[in-house]
Amino acid sequence: MSERSRDTACITLANQTSIKTADIRAKICKINGYSAHADQNDLLNWLVWERGGNFNLAGHEVFVQHGEDRQRQSLAEALTKRAHSKDLTVRTYLPEDPLQWWSLEEKSNVIDLEAEQTRIETEIQILQSQLLNIRRRVN
Predict the structure, then answer these.
(1) Distance CA 123, CA 106 (A)
(2) Of the candidates 40, 115, 120, 112, which has an alpha carbon nearest to the alpha carbon of residue 80?
(3) CA–CA separation, 12 vs 18, rounded Å?
(4) Dihedral in degrees, nearest 10, Cα atoms 16, 17, 20, 23
(5) What is the spatial distance between Cα 90 and Cα 81, in angstroms, rounded to a whole number?
(6) Beta pairing, strands 61-63 & 91-93
(7) Are 11 and 102 in contact (CB under 8 A)?
(8) First CA to last CA distance, the chain
(9) In Å, how far from its chain's centre is CA 79?
(10) 8 Å CB contact between 6 and 111
(11) What pTM value is reported for the model?
């Protein structure tokens, strides 16, 4: 990805909010000792942890995308409630469409705005040309 493309690439959330990838300050960490099938309490304990009498969050934003909608909503509510009980704030996101689910694999769910604009402009030109040809045949 070019430097200019990197500046315009963004991720679009389910609520249509766009975040430039250049503005994201995140890192991917391997979590050892947790099962992919952890129960809700294990996940709550992972999110809100204590050290030296101070409560901390593993992350301020959590994307809940695995499972059925009812269970995802229940987990999101439990995460928010646990954080709130320790005077912490966490934002939860529940993508509605599996096509909107985020993958942490390189280059996935990242949109290059310039390339997308060029693609759409080209598609519009093609459609305009097709429309002109149809109008010529009708007249």
Answers:
(1) 27
(2) 40
(3) 4
(4) -160
(5) 9
(6) parallel
(7) yes
(8) 47
(9) 17
(10) no
(11) 0.51
CB of 5 closer than 8 Å to CB of 113:
no
Contact 111, 74 (CB under 8 A): no
What residues contact residue 73 under an 8 Å CB cut-off, 6+ apart? 94
Asked if residues 48 and 57 have their Cβ atoms less than 8 Å apart, the reply is: yes
The tally of CA atoms less than 13 A away on the side-chain side of residue 101 is 10
Q: Which tens digit of pLDDT belongs to each residue from 29-82?
A: 666 655 556 688 888 988 999 999 999 998 888 888 777 888 889 999 999 999
- Cα separation, 129 vs 132, in Å, equals 5
Rounded (5°) CA angle 29-32-38: 105
- Best CA proximity match to 68, nearest among 34, 96, 35: 96
